[in-house]
Amino acid sequence: MVHAARLRLVRFIRFALVGLVANGCLLGLFLALTATGLRPVWCSIAVYVIGVIATYSLHRNVSFRSSAFHQVAIPRYAFAHLLGLGLQVAVLNVGHDGLGLHPLVAQAVAMIVVAIALFIALDLFAFHSPRLAHRAIVQRASDNRVTDTQG
């Protein structure tokens, strides 16, 4: 159990590092687009789509070190991000249009909310590796046997 939790924490740290670099670049692009006078929500959508395409390989290979087949992972990744885009737009609209937050603040809040939701979706769904899941189950069973023999 401890081993599986440690693996998830390591994946989250790698996900966060990839996300910080990618989102830093994407936030700069968002600022450039909003400076042209485009509505923040449309800028957010454009930046989100660019980010999805740009980070697939990084998340698959670096963040999650997934062995899931591309034929399985890509549609799942796209679906998770489609839900993430909906969440992004909702949070941005509430923050900017509803609460009157500066577009940059609303976008930053939305990015954090979506990042947490995406980590969960990508870890458990898009890049879920049956091999890693099996390894975690075997480890859990081994941990239980050690506890049973000691107790």
Helix and strand arrangement:
Elements (H helix, E strand, L loop, with lengths): L1 H34 L4 H24 L6 H29 L4 H24 L3 H21 L1
Brief overview:
The protein is an all-alpha fold. The chain has helices at residues 2-35, 40-63, 70-98, 103-126, 130-150.
Using DSSP, what is the number of strands? 0
N-end to C-end Cα span: 17 Å
> How many whole angstroms does the radius of gyration measure?
18 Å
Helix content: over 70%
What is the average per-residue confidence, as pLDDT, rounded to a whole number? 86
Distinct helical segment count: 5
* Rough outline: elongated
Domain unit count: 1
What's the SSE pattern? HHHHH
What is the strand content?
Answer: under 5%
Q: Biggest sheet: strands, sense, closure?
A: none
Helices and strands: which structural class? mainly alpha
Low-pLDDT runs of 5+ residues are: none
Structure, described:
There is one protein chain. The chain has one domain. The protein is an all-alpha fold and 151 residues long.
Search tags:
mainly alpha; 5 helices; 151 residues
